[in-house]
Design goal:
The protein is mainly alpha-helical. It is about 55% helix and about 0% strand.
Length: about 150
């Protein structure tokens, strides 16, 4: 066999293999696009399970966050005082907030497009976590009966 004929056969076989792999990848992509997981990829964890008419499920759907997720975000245990919630919230809010604008002009040799040290996504999660815990506390406060006034003999 001559060298050009061998090179052409290698190219043909290689393109056939590549074509088959590309075809299979396309088929798999179509299958993946049609498949919808049980929980739904677009659903927030736990929100799709909140289907009853209870107050807690209503708050979960409203805030798009479960109470457990809110506690995880703010690094709290269940039943902690609101002071601890506010303390953790303020710390996480300050850490993820954009830095205050300064009047300094950037030096010419420094990179002007520095990567930001804050995350709007994390900041919104922290805010929604606090709102969710506060809403749950408000509902619990409304449900608990007010203490009976002491009777005077």
């Amino acid at each position: 066999m001559s060298a050009p004929k061998v090179i052409i056969q290698i190219l043909i076989v290689g393109s056939q293999i590549f074509g088959k792999a590309l075809f299979e990848a396309g088929r798999q992509a179509v299958r993946n696009a049609k498949h919808r997981p049980v929980g739904g990829a677009s659903e927030v964890a736990g929100v799709s399970n909140a289907t009853t008419g209870s107050i807690t499920d209503k708050l979960t759907r409203e805030h798009r966050m479960t109470l457990d997720e809110a506690h995880l975000i703010l690094n709290l245990k269940r039943g902690e005082a609101m002071e601890e919630v506010v303390k953790n919230y303020e710390h996480l809010f300050a850490v993820n907030s954009p830095p205050a604008a300064t009047a300094e002009t950037p030096r010419p040799n420094t990179r002007a497009s520095k990567t930001p040290d804050h995350s709007h996504y994390l900041l919104s999660k922290v805010v929604r976590a606090r709102e969710r815990i506060e809403a749950e506390a408000k509902v619990a406060e409304e449900e608990s009966p007010p203490p009976d006034p002491p009777t005077q003999p």
